[in-house]
Amino acid sequence: MRKKIIAGNWKMNKTVAEAVTLVQGIQAELAGCLDVEAVVCPPFTALKSVSDALADSQIKLGCQNMSDQDNGAYTGEISHTMLRELFVKYVILGHSERRSYYGETDKIVNRKVKKALANTLRPIVCVGETLEQREAGRTEQVVEEQVRGSLADITAAQFEDVVVAYEPVWAIGTGKTATTEQAQEVHAFIRSIIRDMVGEKAAKGLRIQYGGSMKPSNAKELLSQPDIDGGLIGGAALEARSFIDIVKAGM
Fold first, then answer.
1. How far apart are CA 160 and CA 165, in angstroms?
2. 95 is catalytic
3. Which residues contact 87 (CB under 8 A, 6 or more apart)?
4. Which of 49, 67, 136, 228 would be a feasible disulfide site paired with 77, CB 3.0-4.6 Å?
5. 167 part of the active site
6. Which residue of the set 95, 97, 104, 187 is catalytic?
7. How far apart are CA 134 and CA 74, in angstroms?
8. Over the Cα atoms of the chain, what is R_g?
9. What CATH number has the domain bearing residue 177?
10. What's the pTM?
11. Catalytic entry in 37, 97, 104, 167
12. Statement: residue 156 has pLDDT above 80
C-alpha cells in the first residue's frame, strides 16, 4: 500500500516570519500525522527557520530546486550539501515553471535527479503538458518524453526514493482542474511507462502526485483514484487550513 504524500510548494511567497507562522499553524494539527506524509517546500530564505520550527515533527521539509553541481562558481544556485545541512528531505525538480521560465530540459532535470539521489535527497520530479499540447492530442507523447528523459538511467532500487508529480500545466494557478478521470488516466499511463522502464515492482511502489490545482473541495475525490498517491499543492498550500484539509482528505 503506497503512503499518500501531500507536498506544499510555496513558490516565491512568504517572508521568514510568515513562513514560520504558516508552518506552526500546520504543525499544530499535523505534528503527529502518520497516515499521510506531509511536506512543506518554502522559499530558500525561509528553509532554516522552517527547519527549526519542524524539529521533532513528522512533517518533512522540502525545497523548490537544486543545482546539479556540488559547489563552485554557480551564482544564485543551491547545492545538495547546503540543503542537507538544513535537514531537507525532498526537492522539487523539473517544475513546469522551471522548464518554461528558465529553460530547464529533461537532460538538466535528469542530472539534478541523479545528483539528488546520490546525496540522499528524494526528488519530486514534475511532468505535464500545456493546454496547446493537450488540445493537439499530444498529452501522452509529451508526458512519456518527459518521464523517460527526466528519469533516464534511474535504477529500480533508486525509484524507491523517487516521487513523480503529474502537473497539467493548463491547470496550475488557473483554477482549472483536470477531471478525476483525466487525472487518473494520465497517472495510470505514467505508471505503465515506469513499468516498462524498470519493472512491475518499482512501478507499483512509485508514488505519483497530482499537481494541478488540488484543493480541499476536490482532494478527496482525486486521492481516491487508484493511481493518484498525493498532491503537489500550490496556492492551497499558502493557508494552513486548506493545506491541513487536503492532507486529511488523504487519510
1. 15
2. yes
3. 51, 54, 61
4. 67
5. yes
6. 95
7. 36
8. 17
9. 3.20.20.70
10. 0.97
11. 167
12. yes
